[in-house]
Automatic annotation (TrEMBL), chain A:
Transmembrane segments: none
One cellular component (GO) term of this entry: plasma membrane
Protein name (record): Peptide/nickel transport system ATP-binding protein
Family, per entry: Belongs to the ABC transporter superfamily.
Entry keyword rRNA-binding: no
PANTHER family (UniProt xref): D,D-DIPEPTIDE TRANSPORT ATP-BINDING PROTEIN DDPF-RELATED, TRANSPORT ATP-BINDING PROTEIN
Compartments (UniProt record): Cell inner membrane
Pfam families: ABC_tran (PF00005), oligo_HPY (PF08352)
Organismal lineage: Bacteria, Pseudomonadati, Pseudomonadota, Alphaproteobacteria, Hyphomicrobiales
GO biological processes: peptide transport; transmembrane transport
Gene Ontology MF term list: ATP binding; ATP hydrolysis activity
Superkingdom: Bacteria
TrEMBL record, chain B:
Gene Ontology biological-process annotations: peptide transport; transmembrane transport
NCBIfam families: oligo_HPY
Signal sequence coordinates: none
Gene3D superfamilies tied to this protein: P-loop containing nucleotide triphosphate hydrolases (3.40.50.300)
Protein name, UniProt field: Peptide/nickel transport system ATP-binding protein
Amino acid sequence: MHDTLATPMRDQSMRDQTLPQPLATQMAGQDDIILDVAAAACRFDVSAPGLSRLFSHEPRRILRAVENVSFTVRRGTTFSIVGESGCGKSTLARMVVGLQRPTEGTLNFRDIRRADGSFGPPRVQMIFQDPYASLNPRWRVGDIIAEPIRELKLRPDAQSTLQRVGDLLEVVGLSRSDASRYPHAFSGGQRQRISIARALATEADFLVCDEPTSALDVSVQAQILNLMVRLQKEFGLTYLFISHNLSVVRHMSDDLAIMYLGRFVEAGPAEQVFTRPRHPYTRLLLDTIPDVERPNRERKPMSGEVPSPIAPPPGCSFNPRCALAVDRCRAERPELRRLDDVGVACHLA
Amino acid sequence: MTETAAAPLLSVRDLRIVFDGRHGPLTALDGVSFDIAPGEILGVVGESGAGKSLTGTAVIGLLDPPGRVAGGEIHLSGQRIDNLPAEAMRKLRGRRIGAIFQDPLTSLHPLLSVGDQLVETILTHLPVGRAEARRRALDLLKEVGIPAAETRIDHYPHQFSGGMRQRVVIALALCAEPSLIIADEPTTALDVSIQAQITTLLKRLCREHGTAIMLVTHDMGVIAETADRVAVMYAGRIVEIGPVEEVVRRPNHPYTAGLMASIPSVHARHEHLNQIDGAMPRLNAIPPGCAFNPRCGRVEALCREHRPGLPAAPHAAACHFPLKEAAHA
């Protein structure tokens, strides 16, 4: 449930404001770190049941969803994680919101000072991919948005809760009267606006957005991305943005990390990674995405598929698909090295 | 409509599809006309509910009630196929028109090995023996790029990855060497790197076999990289059709232009994306005049009253005030 994601509000002094004041302008330093992830790993035991294993002499099977991932997110910025299915990006997102415990390593939210003077850990909320599955079809939109407010007692009475719900609906570009309707009456894009309003209802500081626009049509996707950018400026939000769509990521990110088989292969300021990709996987990814600006160009698609995270290849996990791979890549795993501001996990970069 | 030198392989004229509902009939597709030349890839692009999949379903004759073809004609190599009896249509399906659907897991039989599925399809459509059918099945698997096809032929669908499954589905569609393949979102369920493999494969097969493809997708990027021509659909109609380079670079219809502008670029970061406000109208609330008029930035009184037709030109837009009007004068 979404309410478990929110850190309860510590300071009630904000409750009479309709919405938090714009923070971006008042923030002490733009570059202060809000989330610090150090050597986080998440492994799942996918072995057969103990007795079967005993009979068939099978070893344990460990799925390494996320391995040794470290990064920091600066307040008020967007950090994106890009990768193909099964690379561990959603597991990482679930660890950040606390739905999944890391097997190793730590994820720390740093205390922040808000515009109203309160000081404490950031409030974290999540926006999910499928707006058709993440809203309760039997609840009115007003109740969906009011639930976190009621649960966390952010407003003293029903009247001010109602007022707050109406304000939130307007903030995300819907009308106050929409509160009395049910989710089925809304299109995919409108539903995603409702999800955003629900996330903002907790006066969240940090939003984890797991593929928030991949279920939407492109023209609607643009509306939602523009809304997210506007809200970020208005409320000084920090986004952890999970996506497989590189052009969306380019549009949204300040920093980004490319993930492959549970590990970061390249991470750094988005502009640098896009203008000068160093890891062969990043390059191939950028080269293979369909590009409307270059119709009918000849391209050489990357061969092979993502290996299983249960039995990753030795050495660099990308080596079976890499055109540049040398013997060293097949034997020794490259660590993330810093080149300028960008971390690259490649022996040859 | 198009002045293709060769006779079109597929010709759809004024296709109208109606769903009979409790509250009266809903027109889902209205006056859709297009041609596909032999060996050509026509991309059909649009947002969800625009009628692009419905068009493909109607061509292949798999429209389920309450949907029905209420008007128009579909011709395949000069033969009218929209009024064929079910049995004749069933024979034609697979033999002359192949199909590839979005989800490769649901379009394969989970309890039959891929070899058995291929052999069965070949035996159904071609006058060959079982041994010859198996040999062809193996050749097809090799051709679509399945490594170690000799052993993989006896594997079951769940033993294949998503990309490999889609290759099997393509092999199935190619079994009887059809002249047309309807590919409905063939790459949507796949990762980008696999997506590129599949579109490249489709393109290569299309060239080598001279098979025409109707490629239905919502992804303008896939269309731009794969198709020869593109038809843009909106609210059950074709709003723009033309060679893919022209439509992508110089869209004439404001909707196409808006669609192109709302795609974020990988080459540069922009502060603000162009967005088309609002959403596509529901079938029961399509506005009078041009269906796009409530969302259009160039709307005039005429657009609210008269529905613009699609002119007969190689690159045409159904708009009273197309962008770059000079190009048409």
